Amino acid sequence: MKKQIRNFAVVAGAATAAFALAAGPASAVPSTVWTVTPSPVNIAATNSGNIVLSVNGIAMTCTKSNGSGTGQSATGNPATIGSITAIAFGATGAPCTSVLGNVSTVATTPWTLVAQDYTAATGVTKGYIGNVDAKVTVGACVFRVTGKASGTYTNSTGKLAVNSTSGELTVVSSTNCGAAVPVGAKPLFKGDYLFKQAGTTTIPKIVGSNP
To answer: Is the dihedral of CA 129, 168, 154, 94 positive or negative?
Structure first.
């Protein structure tokens, strides 16, 4: 019996050590104070490269997109540090396109800008665009997408890089879309936007800290 107990203790100790190695060192405490400079700030955003919404392998591509919103300092994690109050996809003479035809998107705003993690060495904030809600029309097909989209913001360039992951966005309604865009489909939203303080060339900055 004593031998069995010793063997159990050895096995349990080895398992604990293995778990500790797998877990690695404790992660840094996430930022809870977010300083936006200037704050408050009116933001103008324009796309850099294509903006793409893809559903079941069907890419809907916009070569033009722009938006506006606001930013402000905040406390918490996650923390809402801004909002997108208007966003347009496509422009006169440059409609969004897909293999199914031209694409028209109408967003229901505001969408939120949410911060979760900050890396001081790179000046990059990780977070997501929340409260995403948009109606997309492609020919007779009309569907609505809601959810959020992960992204990063880089202070040196003012670039908001949106790169949603599967499951963050969902098609919640679909009319005349058949199997191409069914209810429950999980679209992906990808693209880069450059932020400036409206009417200037100033790039807003975001810094997360733990005072």
So the answer is: negative
